[in-house]
Amino acid sequence: MHIHIISICQKVPTWVSEGYQSYIKRLPKEMSISLKEIPTPKRSLQNLDSCLALEAKQLLAAIPKNAYVIALDEHGESWDTMMCAEKIKHWQMQGYTLCLLIGGPDGFHASIHACVQTKWSLSKLTLPHALIRVILAEQFYRAFTVLNKHPYHRP
Question: Which member of 27, 41, 59, 92 has the greatest number of CB atoms within 10 A?
Fold first, then answer.
């Protein structure tokens, strides 16, 4: 299974890149993750709508053809670890390529909400966008360990 993470972001701190890479390295060959970063446009109250539209255009252009698209959204479904593992198992069995979208500081343009298959909320907390990639990488690694009965996950 290949997983694409596409993120609207600013420059990320070194510790974020290191944390993300530490989980990516642990994944088996059959579960690979790639990350595409799209620079955050300069914002002002006057051009917020145009920024969201530009981000949406860039996100939509970066989505791989025939991917199952998931938007990381505070209003999405909340999954526990076991549910996440089961969803990943299902997507693997279906042969899906996953594409996870991380929006900018103001969320997503309506055109993004219209094209996704699933909206996933990682937390009710507001989290730094850069940290989301680390959480996703860890959760995919955790799901792999759950599905393979590895001792990393202790319920």
Answer: 59
